[in-house]
């Protein structure tokens, strides 16, 4: 069964591999999708979540699940912030950015998994700033689970990267990743070794995903 986080379908990967679309292929799809999510520093599937973002006293707030579809509430120091005081229209939504129209966001920072009211004082306060919103793309996995959630809105290059990575994972099954070549008598085979810093099994997939990496201030 597909997962909401699956960025491609097992049937498409199986067709590229010319193998049955069985549980092994489905597992490679899910593993590839998770690897892509980790590399890009974001969850791609659409969901409604609450985040406690770090804002560092700036006018822009970066949320972790772009594109932004709807902001349900923004709580600041325990109070509800008026929607008229911020916007995420246009390109802001695509980048996961919320712009403060009145003043600046409070000076919060991530410290040890908590959000502090001040980047200097480092006093833990989880309710310093909380944003509840709907964001992310509709993935092939979500549509496979419920066709009514469609159509798929995931960028084509992300889906293609997931297909390439799932195929690479399938082909690499049962082989020691530290072995670059094998020989037996007159038979020998060489394997592609990962380049320094390469995080995915498929370098083509990694190249496709470069524009989708979400960078954050630490």
**Strand numbers in spatial order across the main sheet:** 1-9-3-4
Largest sheet: 4 strands, antiparallel
Radius of gyration: 21 Å
User: What's the number of helices?
Assistant: 6
Beta-strand fraction estimate: 15-25%
Kindly give the count of domains: 2
Element-level helix/strand string: HHEEEEEHEEEEHHEEH
Low-confidence stretches are: 119-124
Gap between N and C termini, in Å? 36 Å
Query: Which outline best applies?
Result: elongated
Give the structural class. alpha+beta
Name the average pLDDT.
Answer: 86
Determine the oligomeric state from the structure. single chain
Fraction of residues in helices?
25-40%
Number of strands: 11
What does this structure look like?
- This protein is of the alpha+beta class and 218 residues long.
- The protein has 2 domains: 1-44 and 138-174 and 199-218, no CATH class; 47-135, no CATH class.
- Helix content is 28%, strand content 21%.
- The strands form 4 sheets. Strands 1-9-3-4 form a 4-stranded antiparallel β-sheet. It has a 3-stranded antiparallel β-sheet with strand order 2-6-5. Strands 7-8 form a two-stranded antiparallel sheet.
- Strand 7 (109-111) and strand 8 form a beta hairpin.
- The model is unreliable at 119-124 (pLDDT under 50).
- This is Conserved uncharacterized protein.
List the helices and strands and how they pair.
Blueprint: H1 10-17, H2 23-40, E1 47-51, E2 60-62, E3 68-76, E4 79-80, E5 86-87, H3 91-95, E6 97-100, E7 109-111, E8 114-116, E9 129-135, H4 140-145, H5 156-171, E10 181-184, E11 187-190, H6 203-209
Antiparallel strand pairs: 1-9, 2-6, 3-4, 3-9, 5-6, 7-8, 10-11
Helix pairs in contact: 1-2, 1-5, 2-5, 5-6
Organism: Stigmatella aurantiaca (strain DW4/3-1)
Protein name: Conserved uncharacterized protein
